[in-house]
Amino acid sequence: MWIADKWTDIEVIDCADGEKLERWGGKTLVRPDPQAIWQTKRENPAWLGCDGRYERSKTGGGQWQKGRLPERWQVRYGDLTFQVGPMNFKHMGLFPEQAANWDWMREKIQTAGRPLQILNLFAYTGGATVAAAAAGATVCHVDAAKGMVSWAKENARLSGLADAPIRWIVDDCIKFVGREIRRGKRYDGIIMDPPSYGRGPDGEVWKLEESLYPFVELVSGVLSENPSFVIINSYTTGLSPSVLTYISESVFTKRFGGSSESRELGLPVTESGLILPCGATCRWET
C-alpha cells in the first residue's frame, strides 16, 4: 500500500460502521466510507460534535448537514494550497490519498533531466495538475465539467501557479485524446482518474470494467517516443490493483518497455494507528 502520511491539514481521526471522522483544516466532518465495515467503538466526541455530516438516504443519494461549515475554505499540502468544501454526494473537492501519487510524480518530473509535457485526464479539481506544474512540468488539464476546471484554476492560483504553463480544457477525454493523436501532439507523462460510470456528450455509456482497456490503448497513442510515466487511478469497488497492472503491462510495457506496479492507496487513522484503504492506483515508468 502507498500511504499518504505527510498531511498536516487533513486527518482521518477515526472510522467505523461505514463512516469516517475527519479533520479538514479546522473543520471536523463525518462522511460515508463503504470500506469501513468494522464496528469498533466511537469514543471521540467529535463523532457527535462535528462541524458537518453527510447523511445517506435510505432511497439512495443523501445530503449534507452542514452545521457550522462554510461553503469553501483552504487546506495546504507542503507548498500547495487547495480550496475544499462540501459537494454533491459526500465529496470535498479533493482526494487526499492522492498525495502519495503527487509526491512520486513530482520526483519523476524533477529528476527527469528534461522538461516534461504532462496530460491529466478526468482531472477533476486539479490536485495532480497543480503538483505537476509546481514540479516544473508543462501540463494539459482535461475535464468535461466546466465547474471543475474553474475550481482547478483557482487551486493553481492559490498555489502561486496562476501563470504556470497549464492548458485548461473542458472536453470529453476520449474525444480530446483522439484529436490530440490526429494533431500529432505527444506527452511524456499521463495521469488518468476515470470514473466508475458515466455518460459521454452524445449519450455514450462509460463503464470502467468495459471501457478502461480500450481507453488505455487509445491513450498509449498520445505518449511521446521517450515517455516517463503513466498513473491510472481506480475507485471501482471490487477491481483489484493487479487488474491495473495487467492492463498497463499489456499496453504500455509491451509498447515502450519499462514496468508497472499497482497498490492500494491509504490514509493513516489516528485513533487506531491503522490504515484506511482508499482505492487503487497503477504506476508505470520507464
What does the model show?
This protein is an alpha/beta fold and 286 residues long. Helix content is 26%, strand content 33%. It is built from six helices and 17 strands. The chain has helices spanning 99-110, 127-134, 146-158, 173-183, 208-220, 241-256; strands at 2-3, 10-16, 19-24, 27-32, 52-56, 62-65, 73-77, 80-84, 117-121, 138-143, 166-170, 189-192, 197-199, 205-207, 229-234, 259-268, 275-285. The protein has an eight-stranded mixed sheet with strand order 1-16-17-15-12-9-10-11. A five-stranded mixed sheet has the order 2-3-4-5-6, with no helix packed on it. Strands 7-8 form a two-stranded antiparallel ribbon. Strand 9, helix 2 (127-134) and strand 10 (138-143) form a beta-alpha-beta unit. Helix 1 (99-110) packs parallel to helix 2 and helix 5 runs parallel beside helix 6 (241-256). The longest helix has 16 residues, at 241-256. The protein is globular. The two termini are 21 Å apart. 42% of the residues are buried. The model has no long low-confidence stretch (mean pLDDT 96).
Which regions have little confidence, pLDDT < 50, spanning 5+ residues?
Answer: none
- Describe the sheet with the most strands: 8 strands, mixed
Query: Can you list the strand order of the major beta sheet?
Result: 1-16-17-15-12-9-10-11
Radius of gyration: 19 Å
How many E-type strands?
17
H/E element sequence: EEEEEEEEHEHEHEHEEEHEHEE
Question: What oligomerization state is this entry in?
Answer: single chain
The first-to-last residue Cα distance is 21 Å
The global form is globular
For the residues shown, what is the average pLDDT? Answer: 96
Give the helix level as a range of percent.
25-40%
Strand content: 25-35%
Helix and strand content put the structural class at alpha/beta
User: How many DSSP helices?
Assistant: 6
